[in-house]
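anyone seen this seq b4? input:
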Amino acid sequence: MANSATEPEADVQLLEEVLGVELPSSYREFLLTQGNATVFGLPVLGLPLSLEETSVWGATELVRARRPDLGPSLVAIRLMNTRALCLDLRGAKGHDAPLIEVPLQGDDPPNPVHESFARYLQAGLRSERHIEGALKHIRWLVEQGDEYDHALPDARPPYRAHHWRVMRSCVHDHVVGLTAIRHNEAMNALEVDVFLNTDHPEYEPGHGVRALAVLLLSDAYRNGASMEIRFTRWDRDTRQRIPVRLLGPLAELARSSGISFVRAAEGVIAHQEAVRLYAALVGLPAQAIQAVERYEASRFLTLEGLCYLVSAGLWTVEEASWIVLNFPEPHRVLFGADVPEVRLPYVEALSYGRAALAATRLCQRLTGGDVEAQGSCGVEIVGAAWRITPHDPCELGWAVSGDALSLVSGQPIVVLSRPRILFPDEEKRILEETRSFPASDNGATRFLLYASDHGRLSDLRGLAAQVASETGIGILILPFTCQELDEEVDRRMARARVLRP
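predicted toks r here
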């Protein structure tokens, strides 16, 4: 290991010797001038040299040990759990080299990340400068606002929606979205001054503007009577705020969702345009949107209200869609309109929420139990059933027989979620429910899904064998009781009760 007092040039030469490579001049210059850095909120490894994973030497040796099939031409500049970001010296051209992401488990091939290490650093620096510029403007904006008391520079008033406020969106501590907003009562709209978005290079293009747009739309719903959004700026000559044409990334985001802003030149997103964009960004399917539109005349449920519930994480897209499509009065469970004091309606609302929650618990199980990884399953609501397609092979041990079911990647299953307390005629009910599946399931394997309460049936295995032989339908038992599911649904209903539909 090199001595910490060694000159950087000697360290670079030693690094090339121990790794047996010739480093591109762009990375050599980085080591000599910076040693190591943080770019887009993540570390870029370099000096000082050591065999620890916080040094380029130690990280590269780890990659070589984990992926000997890739040879000695990779230099690891970042470790990320089961992945590593590497300079690919095989593609080096003169002074520079491309960046690739190397899986450290298995033998999957590397994925290209950036064509140039030098330009990757430059992009990170530009992003930081843009953010610093926006922050300076925001400081000026807040200090010039009517709510700022210049006689008491350290005093700040309590939060008010009509005051200028700052919102940001981050990935790995790197700001990908920054905005300054307030609700303008005279406009009856959300007013936007700063709208800065960028992308983290290791994520899909456009995620920065998408995240920032969802923040704007959620704030417009939460604090305003209208979803209209207006972009303005302070004009020093006229000493008043003037409209600003909508920024290209936001307009392009809308166009990619089939939405055009009629008054884009005036910096205005109309109410209905904002609602449609909101629905597209949270991922509501067309059939759910159409169902909500049928309820909007009654004002018991609005599309923007449902989008807010989903974006706030109270309900998943799939749960909300299933409830809207299957419960005649979906606002009763989604917005918690039913309360425990009025017992019968409340119990009915719980039963629909419980069925939706049970199905998402199954989706989470198919993704290794990761609550945040539900996107690893494709989900389609078909009538009362859930058509679930695992994206990866998985094992499911919820079958009545106790045997693990092997599910193939891309092979869908159709599930009818029916968690409920036991009734005296439960066997008859289960047999009747086998006839409730969609008429066409395209040959998918079908399952009935019940709570663990059904595990108390005296001859559940015999009943499951009978159902399977007569209908080809399997029975799955959740490792949760109805009461446990009800408690979670009740918490969500209580949180949603304070919101307007």
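Residues 1-5, 146-153, 370-375 have pLDDT under 50 and may be disordered. The two ends are 63 Å apart (CA to CA). kinda curious what u guys think
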